[in-house]
Predict the 3D structure of the following.
Amino acid sequence: MADADNTDADPQRLWGGRFEEAPDALVQAYTSSIQTDLLLFRHDIAGSRAHARMLAAQGIIDADDAAKILQGLDQVESEIESGGFEINHELEDIHTHVEARLSQIIGADAAGRLHTARSRNDQVALDTRMFVRDAIVQAVGAVRGLQASLIELAERSLDVYLPGYTHLQRAQPVLLSHHLLAYLEMLDRDAERLVDSFARADIMPLGSAALAGAAYPLDRQAVADELGFEAISRNSMDAVSSRDYIVEFLSNASICMVNISRLCEDVILWSSAEFGLLQFGDAFTTGSSIMPQKRNPDIAELARGRSGKVLGHLTGLLTTLKGLPLAYNRDLQEDKSGLFDTAETLIGTLHVLARALLTASVDGQRARAMVDRDPFILATDYADYITRKGVPFREAHGVVGRLVRLCEQRGCGLSDLSLTDLQSQHPSFDADAVGMTVQFALESRDIPGGTAPNQVRAALDEAKDRLQLKPAGQPAAPQAAQAPEPTLETGLNRAQRRAAERAAAKQQSQQGQQRQQGRR
């Protein structure tokens, strides 16, 4: 999106008065961004409507011209939505396309007034900020949807335990529900980061013009109110040249996609014949073109793969920005393709995984057998047993290590050892240590955040309260007062709410004036 606003030479192009030649066709094709930024048409037209109304209210353009502009913008929006809008690469971008078509509809004189006190530099910053706000709202909603699916699967699997892993080696038994709730916590932080970033995207840049600010008595707050922005930018050069709000969205999306990728890696492993713990329903599974028996968890694999693409978009934009002097540079045209693809990838991935998990079936018997047949998975519990009897844990660790070696020599497991065998390594073992059970191991981790069944049930109830997933009429468990999660609105919804508030305030003011006049 070029930094030029002269319209003398060409009524279609927004610049060119100081040039004697038209751009070469190769230049036009290379610099055009319309195939990418056409996606911003609703945001661009909404910004133009607010700008036109403000210009008329400030007496900068005639009210009749503003009315024509608004009517023409409605038609342009309708044409784009219907698919009947003609794309022309000579017009470079969505801003020029809208204005060029507006000129055809209402005439160049009225249409040419729309760009008063505005540059494409602050215009595109406005459009992308509006896009990011809406993407954040949709992404948070999609995160909550995936969390709800995790909770549903965790509730179905409360009686299932399986090996927990470190270094991809069996470590200790955990409830499958506990494992799934780990991802719920990661997604909670993902949502919090997105919510927190909303305020930094929610800043209205229009009025900054090319870089120095507009030379007209603009009412920037009125534009911000109509478009639902919480604040207006404080520095015109920063407003047109900074893209940190996009970087922050890409960063938050990257972290979320990495967390999703880890979940998908578990799903992929669990779906393999080697594990055999989980299957998606047929509608969310694919096959092989040559091997008839195959059931491939392709959506999990694609989500894992697409996380790398999102990370690439973040790295690409950071690299683009790092060498840019103030203020606007054409390099910033390249901020949108990665932004749009990231939003689509993140939100789409969250939605499809949420649906897939609802179809997932778990082989609880096989999962429990993986633990029950493991000869040493309770080794830490044997060490904890004598530690609770007063033995230093480091000494207890060595004792159980020797017991493991004894079992390996005999070809048996720890649960097969007799009391005499246990006491041969340390006298603190008593009869209740013989044949230690998985249930004992699980229940012993009865602390907040642990895998004990009652703790996991409590964590599930708390998560449902937090996400408002309790059945209707069921009261939430009492808890300390907490600040509610910020409620996010789309820019359009907030604009409508504020318009209604302004109308109500105006009506109250008029009624007050009428009462005062009546008293006189």
